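testing teh design pipeline on a random one, pls ignore if ur not involved
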C-alpha cells in the first residue's frame, strides 16, 4: 500500500466521535467521504446497544483509486458503560486489500490485564482503571466535551503491546460547511510532540451529540487529507444542518 493509501486508512480510523449523553449512549449511524491525491474513501460507523450496559461500536471503510477498490478496514469495540465510565471488553482491527493486518485486544478487568494479539504474537499488557481501546476513547472524548470546562482532554489506550497517551486541545467554536449542511462545532487539535510535522484537527457538531462533522489531517510527508460528514442518524433522528 502506498503512503497516501496508508494515510487515508489511518485517517478513516478516527471517525468515531459522537452520540453520547450524560446517562446513556445514543445509538447512531454516520457516513463520511474522504479525499486525498486522487484517492477517495467512504466510511460508516454504527453504535448499537447490546444490553442495558453493553454496546458495540464498529467502523468500516473502503478506499478507491479511479473506482478501483484498494483496501477495506473493519474496526470494532465492545464495551460497558455505567456511572459515566466506558470499560472496553474487546477490540478488533482488520485491514484487507493491498495490505493486510489483524489486531485484537481482550480486557480482563479482574486481573487488570489486557491480552493484545496481532499477526505475529500475543502479549499481556497491564492496564489501569481508566484504560481504553483505540476506538472507545473517541466516545469518551464526546462524553467529556458534553460537559465543557477543560481545555485539554487526554486518554490512555492499549496500542499494540503498550499503553499510549492520546491528547486533544480545544481551539474554540466554529461554524463549518459539510455535504450534509452547516454545523455549529467545537474545534479541537490533537497534541503531538513539538518535533512532529503531523497535524489532526477535528470539528464536533455541538447540536448533535458531538457528532464528528469534519476532520483534516496533514501527514509527516505533507499529504493533506479531508473527511466530511455526508449523512447521519442519531437515536433514529435524521441529522440536519443549521439551514435545513
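output:
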Amino acid at each position: 500500500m502506498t503512503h497516501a493509501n496508508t494515510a487515508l486508512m489511518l485517517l478513516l480510523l478516527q471517525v468515531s466521535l459522537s452520540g453520547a449523553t450524560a446517562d446513556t449512549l445514543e445509538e447512531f449511524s454516520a457516513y463520511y467521504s474522504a479525499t486525498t491525491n486522487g484517492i477517495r474513501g467512504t466510511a460508516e460507523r454504527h453504535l448499537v446497544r447490546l444490553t442495558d450496559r453493553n454496546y458495540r461500536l464498529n467502523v468500516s471503510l473502503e478506499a478507491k483509486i479511479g473506482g478501483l477498490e484498494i483496501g477495506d478496514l473493519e474496526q470494532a469495540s465492545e464495551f460497558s458503560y455505567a456511572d459515566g465510565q466506558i470499560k472496553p471488553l474487546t477490540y478488533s482491527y482488520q485491514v484487507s486489500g493491498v495490505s493486510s493486518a489483524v489486531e485484537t485486544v481482550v480486557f480482563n478487568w479482574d486481573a487488570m490485564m489486557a491480552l493484545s494479539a496481532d499477526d505475529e504474537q500475543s502479549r499481556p499488557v497491564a492496564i489501569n482503571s481508566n484504560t481504553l481501546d483505540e476506538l472507545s476513547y473517541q466516545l469518551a472524548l464526546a462524553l467529556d466535551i458534553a460537559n465543557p470546562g477543560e481545555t485539554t482532554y487526554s486518554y490512555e489506550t492499549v496500542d499494540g503491546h503498550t499503553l499510549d497517551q492520546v491528547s486533544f486541545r480545544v481551539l474554540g467554536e466554529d461554524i463549518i460547511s459539510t455535504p450534509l449542511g452547516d454545523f455549529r462545532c467545537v474545534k479541537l487539535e490533537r497534541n503531538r510532540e513539538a518535533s512532529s510535522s503531523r497535524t489532526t484537527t477535528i470539528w464536533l457538531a455541538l447540536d448533535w451529540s458531538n457528532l464528528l462533522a469534519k476532520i483534516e489531517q496533514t501527514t509527516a510527508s505533507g499529504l493533506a487529507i479531508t473527511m466530511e460528514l455526508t449523512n447521519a442518524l442519531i437515536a433514529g433522528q435524521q441529522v440536519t444542518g443549521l439551514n435545513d
